[in-house]
Amino acid sequence: MAEPGRPITVAIERRIDPSRTAEATSWMQAGTDLAARFDGFLGSGWVRAGEGSDLWYMLYRFRDIPTLEGWEQSGQRAWWLESGAAFASEVRVERRTGIEGWFDAPMATVLTDPSSESTATGPVQQPIPSAPPRWKQAVAIWLGFFPTNLLATWLLGFIPGFADLPLVLRVLTATIALTPVMTYFVLPWVTRMLRPWLQRG
């Protein structure tokens, strides 16, 4: 379960009608634009599993559970979901908190697949693998942070006068620039590449 007062990330897997890709692209972007207008919004994005795949993934992040629920229970989101019902169906939803959210979610909400033989209705709770050992998490974070920090340090060196700034200002600038890059791009990519190793054992 997500803890109150902590940022929470929601990852949603959807199946999209391949014949309506253009509509789905505009629809997904409209959803992220709508979410961005809500209090506590910290970022969002979406990707396709592959060029020929009907699986699309959307991720958004809010400051805490109350602000997330403000978006999820809003009329705007209900209207948006209804507008895409003809070509988009939710398959799976995961809520994650903290840095360990990149490595696991203790409980995931899996939505019923209409094509399934199951007679269950509505969302059901399904456990997913627990987080890998902390030493593996540390290795994964370092593998992402070291090259990112190295590249950033090299690039910042080309800024005239940057090397002459006080150490505190240089570190502050670098961390402000690198934190969103690590959170939204590097860590998701590293953990995806290392997933077999992270989950082994």
TrEMBL record:
<keyword id="KW-0472">Membrane</keyword>
<dbReference type="InterPro" id="IPR038762">
    <property type="entry name" value="ABM_predict"/>
</dbReference>
<dbReference type="GO" id="GO:0004497">
    <property type="term" value="F:monooxygenase activity"/>
</dbReference>
<feature type="transmembrane region" description="Helical">
    <location>
        <begin position="167"/>
        <end position="190"/>
    </location>
</feature>
<feature type="transmembrane region" description="Helical">
    <location>
        <begin position="139"/>
        <end position="161"/>
    </location>
</feature>
<dbReference type="InterPro" id="IPR011008">
    <property type="entry name" value="Dimeric_a/b-barrel"/>
</dbReference>
<protein>
    <submittedName>
        <fullName>Antibiotic biosynthesis monooxygenase</fullName>
    </submittedName>
</protein>
<keyword id="KW-0503">Monooxygenase</keyword>
<keyword id="KW-0812">Transmembrane</keyword>
<keyword id="KW-0560">Oxidoreductase</keyword>
<keyword id="KW-1133">Transmembrane helix</keyword>
